Amino acid sequence: NAGVTQTPKFQVLKTGQSMTLQCAQDMNHEYMSWYRQDPGMGLRLIHYSVGAGITDQGEVPNGYNVSRSTTEDFPLRLLSAAPSQTSVYFCASSYNQAGGAVQQYFGPGTRLTVT
Amino acid sequence: GENVEQHPSTLSVQEGDSAVIKCTYSDSASNYFPWYKQELGKRPQLIIDIRSNVGEKKDQRIAVTLNKTAKHFSLHITETQPEDSAVYFCAASTFSGNQFYFGTGTSLTVIP
Predict the structure, then answer these.
(1) What is the pLDDT of residues A27-72, one digit of tens each?
(2) How far is A6 from chain B (nearest CA, A)?
(3) What is the pLDDT of residues B23-39, one digit of tens each?
(4) DSSP readout, B41-95?
(5) For residue A2, how many other CB atoms are within 10 A of its CB?
(6) Is A110 an 8 Å CB contact of chain B?
(7) Quick check: A93 contacting B, CB < 8 Å?
């Protein structure tokens, strides 16, 4: 199992450009999430999905779009990049357990710089 | 929504001493509390977790305690080693498990 994979590892964008951060998992997990990590602020939830075709907003969704057409993939789109979106982005997945929440598995992260 | 607060933000201990990191949460519906360790440039990795029906859980040198009434939970690391140096995050999630809320992290330095 590759687990959770993310591409690219590093990206530099100019203000106003758009791009898609890719995330894939091969563990057949229902739940997938996107977080951004900024110094001193921990991980903040951007968007999440509870299954193919179902997405919802997290704490900081503005400026980002997601879709979930398959169980495996959960891409994050930056519509018009802004310097405030400079951050490290982590994708995570977990499975749905009847007894309650279970641990999330994180991807390696994408370091994004917007100039 | 849930609000998770974590203290301290930085912690330095001598090798062999104990380290304690504390978190509080606001949503009484939260019932799953994982702790993650993140080394520089790496992804967060789960080190221990606890559910609301348990008051304490231990795994070798690491333990977590939970006080549901006070809405706080703590990470205890005993006999610290230099390789314990990292950033530690607490988190909280409800029964549904589709949203996790993280604390702001504690940078632990173990001095040899």
Answers:
(1) 999 999 999 999 878 899 999 999 999 999 999 999 999 999 999 9
(2) 11
(3) 999 999 899 999 999 99
(4) TS--EEEEEEETT-SEEEETTEEEEEETTTTEEEEEE-S--GGG-EEEEEEEEET
(5) 9
(6) no
(7) no
- Coil, helix or strand for A74? coil
- A window 12-31, beta carbon within 8 A of B: 31
Distances (CA, A) of B42 to A28, A113, B1, B6, B52: 23, 17, 28, 21, 29
Contact at 8 Å (CB) between B91 and B33? Answer: yes
Residue B6: which H helix or E strand, with range?
A: strand B4-7
Query: How far does A83 lie from chain B, in Å, by closest CA?
Result: 21
CB proximity A106 to B under 8 Å: yes
CA distance B36 to A5: 19
Q: Report the distance separating Cα B6 and Cα B70, nearest Å.
A: 14
Instruction: Evaluate if residue A100 carries a pLDDT over 90.
Output: no
Closest among B107, B86, B106, B84 to B17, alpha carbons compared: B84
Q: Is B68 left (phi over 0), alpha (psi -120 to 50) or beta?
A: alpha
